[in-house]
Amino acid sequence: MSPDRLLALWGRLGGSAVGRWLFSQAVRLAVPYTGALGARVISLEPGRAVVTLRDRRGVRNHLGSVHAIALANLAEMASGLAMVSALPPGVRSIVTRIEIDYQKKARGTLTATGSAAPPTVTEPVTSLARAEIRDAAG
After folding, report:
1. Which range marks the domain in which residue 48 is found?
2. pLDDT digits (tens, 9 = 90+) for 46-89
3. At what angle do helices 3-13 and 68-86 cross, to 10 degrees?
4. Number of domains in the chain
């Protein structure tokens, strides 16, 4: 989805809980693998996205905490939305590297905040997007 289309859709739907749910469903349809996570987009603006993930059986590991790859997927979703929303019109991006540090077992509702500086694009470039995941305690 193009940055303009993404932000326009958010502009129409992001103002209400039902609209945010519908937007999250649109992301789910556009990106089926990430959509399988069941995360919800809470806010979106150029270069910044906030996404939540409810702790439920489908995202847990054998230790009863949120699976490491579910966390990586959540971080990629938040950072990816931040990056795409920051891109100039007509520019696309693709993830070429993911680096993640796990601080502790994740439990409860998680909030991922993605950020990306708008890149200056005149030819193929490498740009950095970040995501940080926190639980309700911070």
Report:
1. 3-134
2. 999 999 999 999 999 999 999 999 999 999 999 999 999 999 88
3. 100
4. 1
